[in-house]
Amino acid sequence: MRLGFVSVLSIPVLLITACGGGLPDNVYELDKACGGATYDGATPYAGPPPHRVAVFMPSEVGQLLPEAPDLSDRSAAVDGYLGEPTAVQLVACGTLEGAEQGSSDCGGYVGLARSIPMVRATYRIRVHELRTHREVRSVVVKGADTACPSYISANYTPKRFLSGLTDAQWQSVLDDLVE
User: Fold this and answer.
1) How far apart are CA 116 and CA 38, in angstroms?
2) 9, 64, 66, 123: which has the highest count of C-beta atoms within 10 A?
3) How many CB atoms lie within 10 A of CB 25?
């Protein structure tokens, strides 16, 4: 845990940042690392590969969701729901940089009479060491995966779908860091 003081409206405020040493029980809870949390108990990004990576990308509503891209070395990508947080050395965090109207729509969903546009999203992918939050890479990538989801939630119908990164794009972003 890190302590620090900042001034808010000329009033000193104690800030407590990060999650100290304790890793969460589940990989999907490592999304806090995208916001700057550090984990002293995480395995350092050092030594021989593979270096395990957890990947988080924004959804249509901006929530960070775990992904498990198919990397060349399959042992390096951590399943966002089933992986062990103790094995993770790196976290890849996507932020939406922009979106341009695509030429396709997704439709045929049960109970939905309209189609949903697919937009070509551009992301900034920042890769950080989980232990220290040291940035080891930052790249901008336009998502090339415009496949429509096979289903949508009955509780939420998005106004648009965002293109994602293909496995080949993830490989170009992460392979040299994890292998």
Assistant:
1) 38
2) 123
3) 9
